[in-house]
Amino acid sequence: MYAWASAHLWQLANPAFVIPVVVLLGVLLLWSPWPRLGRALATVAAIAWLAIACLPIAAWLTLTLEDRFPPPAPVPEIVTGIVVLGGSVSPGISHLRGLPALNANAERLVEFAVLARRFPDAKLVFAGGGKDLSGRVPTEAAISLQILDRLGLDTRRVLVDDRSTDTYANAVFTKALAQPVEGETWLLVTSAWHMPRAVGAFRAAGWRVVPFPVDYTTAGRVRVSLDFDPVSHLVALDLAVHEWLGLIVYRLLGRSNAFFPAAE
């Protein structure tokens, strides 16, 4: 229920949805008894679109997320276990093409395989379900295991949570599966922009993990320039706004221990 509501309610805040709707509403109002309101709405939406298209607004928002948890330096010498969050594959495309299909978050799985080789005695956990309602499309977990196998990882080492459909469920189900003990060192692998919400969820579930961010989308600094690129900027803003709203909602629902979790 939460996953369904989250996916649908997000559309009401998605900039790629809101801006065209406001423009359309403004144009319609131009032909109504309230033309001033129509002009105001259309003008505000146009200015917002132009600002998004020209300025690195999305990069600023994303950089703040990605820099919140730096990679561990140095990496702990003894690692009890490694948890990787799902979101790296496209189940629908994988099903239709008959081959495992990775998406833009692929580095999560790749780095997980690298760390698994680096720490051969560590416990390994994959967290991510997302079953298709029709039952025809393979689960994200099943496809991810195929990819890990192709990368040369012995997938018999991997404990799998194939029930969770959101980040908080990842934390709850994975903790029950891995049964971590206080004093152990567990690495958490996910995209850097997703790490604040993921760490907040794991802490709320009572599990202190060591963040191991990957899959960066920014270069560590933002250069201010009038770079007119409305499509890519809007796509990047969609991701950043989604994550910032997710942080707020998670805190309000008690799914995170802080509005913006920080390194300890």
Number of strands: 5
Give the tally of structural domains: 2
The CATH class label of the largest domain is Alpha Beta
Question: What is the approximate shape?
Answer: elongated
Order of helices and strands: HHHHEHHEHEHEHEH
Mean pLDDT: 89
What's the architecture of the largest domain in CATH terms?
3-Layer(aba) Sandwich
Distance between the termini: 33 Å
CATH homology-level superfamily of the largest domain:
HUPs
Order of strands, main sheet, comes to 3-2-1-4-5
Topology summary:
Blueprint (H helix, E strand, L loop, with lengths): L1 H8 L5 H16 L4 H20 L2 H10 L14 E5 L5 H7 L9 H12 L4 E5 L12 H11 L7 E4 L5 H12 L7 E6 L3 H10 L5 E5 L15 H23 L12
Structural write-up:
The structure is a single chain. The chain is of the alpha/beta class and 264 residues long. The chain has two domains: 2-65 and 228-250, no CATH class; 71-216, Rossmann fold, CATH 3.40.50. It is built from ten helices and five strands; from the N terminus they run ααααβααβαβαβαβα. The protein has helices at 2-9, 15-30, 35-54, 57-66, 91-97, 107-118, 140-150, 167-178, 195-204, 230-252; strands at 81-85, 123-127, 158-161, 186-191, 210-214. The chain has a five-stranded parallel β-sheet with strand order 3-2-1-4-5, with helices on both faces. Helix 9 (195-204) links the parallel strand 4 (186-191) and strand 5. Helix 3 packs across helix 10. The longest helix has 23 residues, at 230-252. The radius of gyration is 21 Å and the shape is elongated. It starts with a helix and ends in a 12-residue tail after the last helix. The model has no long low-confidence stretch (mean pLDDT 89).
